[in-house]
Amino acid sequence: MLLFLVIFDSVIADDVSLLMVLVDTNPFFWSTTNNALSFSKFLSHVLAFLNSTLLLNQLNQVVVIATGFNSCDYVYDSSSNSVAPNQRTERLLQKLEEFVIKDEQLSKEESADGIGSSLLSGSLSMALCYIQRVFRSGPLHPQPRILCLHGSPDGPQQYVAIMNAIFSAQRSMVPIDSCVIGAQHSAFLQQASYITGGVYLKPQQLDGLFQYLATVFATDLHSRNFLQLPKPVGVDFRASCFCHKNTIDMGYICSVCLSIFCKHHKKCSTCGSVFGQAQTNAPSTSKQKRKSPDT
Amino acid sequence: MPQVKIIAKNFMDMVASLPAMKLDKLYENAFICEAILRSLPPLAKKYVLQMLYIDVPVPAKSMEEWVVADGFSKHKVAIDRLIQLRVLTEIVDRKKETTYKLNSTFQINLQKHIVYGWCLTQIDYRDDLLIGYCSGVLPREPMPSNITVRLPSLEDLEAYATEQWECFLLHLISSTQAERTTNFSSSMMKVFQRGLLSQRDKEAPRLTESGFQFLLMDTNAQLWYIIREYITNSEERGVDSANLISFLLELSFHVTGEAYNSNTLTDFQRNAIKDLADLGLVKLQQGRKESWFIPTKLATNLSISLSDSSSRKQGFVVVETNFRIYAYSTSKLHCEILRLFSRIEYQLPNLIVGAITKESLYDAFENGITAEQIISFLQQNAHPRVAERIPSVPENVTDQIRLWESDLNRIEMTPAHLYDEFPSRDVFEAACDFAREYGGMLWDDSKQMRLVVKADILMQMREFLRSQKQ
């Protein structure tokens, strides 16, 4: 008598991932001379990393979003069938070039001083939109995660938009990994990775970027439960004020909508609540302060 | 005693069982490296990637530091698998420290894939050696569309594959029913049928228990079973099994629906591809001058482990709470499968109507099909309309199927011995205690001093009673 024991994996293999890579293409950042890594070298590291991600599982999916100075756009999607696998690099580089030129044309109108920040909030939102679409595509979807390869300094004026994106990623359980290739730490990305349970890393040796990417950021969500990954050392939780977009340690908060201000205002610019005197005044005015908005 | 045979779950188990020499030779093919890497457990994949650019052996101790305490068992599984497939080599040096090193052929092939995998255009095509290594994405170039005419659409191709496969299956289980013959030699068919059919003299061949179970498996599992037989049998046909494995793996990297020139195949591959066409893995077409083959989904799914749910076909069965089955199918094979456990009442051009009855199920159980297999077949092939419902098969039906099965198992038979006419109550009680101690006590009646024990402990009982007599 023969008995068959066929062992079934009941669900889709658990390491199938959807990797959204946000690549910083801010020309002001890449043109700074003190960069240890040139843009072309950086790209070759990233391409090798994308290659290896696609190599690990045939169902893995990679989407690349370019984060420019004025705009952001999808430059590569491995799931679109229009690109033959052997023309991937060509297509990606071509799209990237088109994007950078378009981005440059947009910026001619206004002049920037110093290294401006790139539009991280925009590309984060695009990544999250894409992920939402994947979530709705059916019960069997790859596990998404976002990887920010970011070098430009934080733009405090994007604070609200970025925080909203972070919280929406947290809600949909999408980790945001950050790999900072600039000179300074990024407070935004530290918070993003901390809140969403992703990994934040600022590589010491930028010429070995691929090894960092392969060791830390290639880890699928399933394996993260078993591997030692870099732990957050210190997270800069400071917020930006809504009025002047400065990063502040202490400030005023609207008691109705939690907007942050660096100075005392008469009225909340976000929700329109009318405030009383600042707290340093006599406590008798506290009743006035709680006045609710008329709307 | 039932002989338990564990089917190698997928290609990779078979690859892993190859002798070391053959395995090392296989790794010279970049596709095999890729397929092997993809088949590894997630953690093992990660290790390979991590060690890809490390040229010195990595101490086992530092690898253990990569994992957290909870993951240690997974770590062990990953390392064992890597060593089994000879991807990692274990080196124990003089200080008794274990280090691991990646198989260098494997390492170089993957490095090339990662670096050149995307940018084929930048590589000089005149250099034959480079093409051999670097065409890491596609094993061979598809033919330009101006030569190939009448290429089937993807739907047509899938329909072709299904039809071809079902024809083969029908041929396999009852050669009289099939409308077309396959060009597998009858000896080849005999090999496939071994274990699935049993033939007594002058009787029509009957499906064996495992044959029934085979029919209820999903297509990928069935395909794998046949391919496995095909590979194990290859040595007898004078074909090197390693060559065959590497060709099949290579085939799974072709793009579904593209045409590939048959001239690019070697003689042995040309022979093999004819057999594969019979199974529906490829479609062969003949142009005015050239001939080409088109891989179907069955071929490209080969290297994926069995139960990739994305490859599952649409279901066709609706089961109602009144035990009636409606199967929207034109396939004879489906009808045959349903007949295994239900009573087919009537058949319309695109619909088979049947009922699950106690009698039909008893027949199925007698043939060695289990209730779980029937239920999982019904669930896996549920029509899309009912598949969304939870449960897709009505609960009262599944419960009843299980109950009817357990009806048959109400009696358990154990060989036993009955003792009576004990000389005294003391001896009887001592015997009872003895039997209990050995776990062989089945029943005792202390009034009439009778005792039933398992046949297993007969010898010990005899010894014991003899010692009691003295």
From TrEMBL, chain A:
Compartments it resides in: Nucleus
Keywords, in A-Z order: DNA damage, DNA repair, Metal-binding, Nucleus, Transcription, Transcription regulation, Zinc, Zinc-finger
Family under the similarity heading: Belongs to the TFB4 family.
Main location (coarse class): nucleus
GO cellular component terms attached to this protein's record: transcription factor TFIIH core complex; transcription factor TFIIH holo complex
Highest taxon of source: Eukaryota
Record has Transmembrane helix as a keyword: no
Molecular function terms from GO: zinc ion binding
One GO biological process term: regulation of DNA-templated transcription
One Pfam family, short name: Tfb4
Species, as recorded: Nyssa sinensis
Protein name: General transcription and DNA repair factor IIH subunit TFB4
Complex formation: Component of the 7-subunit TFIIH core complex composed of XPB, XPD, TFB1/GTF2H1, GTF2H2/P44, TFB4/GTF2H3, TFB2/GTF2H4 and TFB5/GTF2H5, which is active in NER. The core complex associates with the 3-subunit CDK-activating kinase (CAK) module composed of CYCH1/cyclin H1, CDKD and MAT1/At4g30820 to form the 10-subunit holoenzyme (holo-TFIIH) active in transcription.
Primary role: Component of the general transcription and DNA repair factor IIH (TFIIH) core complex, which is involved in general and transcription-coupled nucleotide excision repair (NER) of damaged DNA and, when complexed to CAK, in RNA transcription by RNA polymerase II. In NER, TFIIH acts by opening DNA around the lesion to allow the excision of the damaged oligonucleotide and its replacement by a new DNA fragment. In transcription, TFIIH has an essential role in transcription initiation.
Keyword DNA-binding carried by entry: no
TrEMBL record, chain B:
Domain Transcription factor Tfb2 C-terminal: 399-466
Subcellular location: Nucleus
Keyword check for DNA damage: yes
Keyword field contains DNA repair: yes
Family: Belongs to the TFB2 family.
GO MF annotations in UniProt: ATPase activator activity; double-stranded DNA binding
NCBIfam families in the cross-refs: tfb2 (TIGR00625)
Function: Component of the general transcription and DNA repair factor IIH (TFIIH) core complex which is involved in general and transcription-coupled nucleotide excision repair (NER) of damaged DNA.
Protein name from the UniProt record: RNA polymerase II transcription factor B subunit 2
Source domain of life: Eukaryota
GO terms for cellular component: transcription factor TFIIH core complex; transcription factor TFIIH holo complex
Organism: Nyssa sinensis
Alphabetical UniProt keywords: DNA damage, DNA repair, Nucleus, Transcription, Transcription regulation
A Gene Ontology biological process term: nucleotide-excision repair
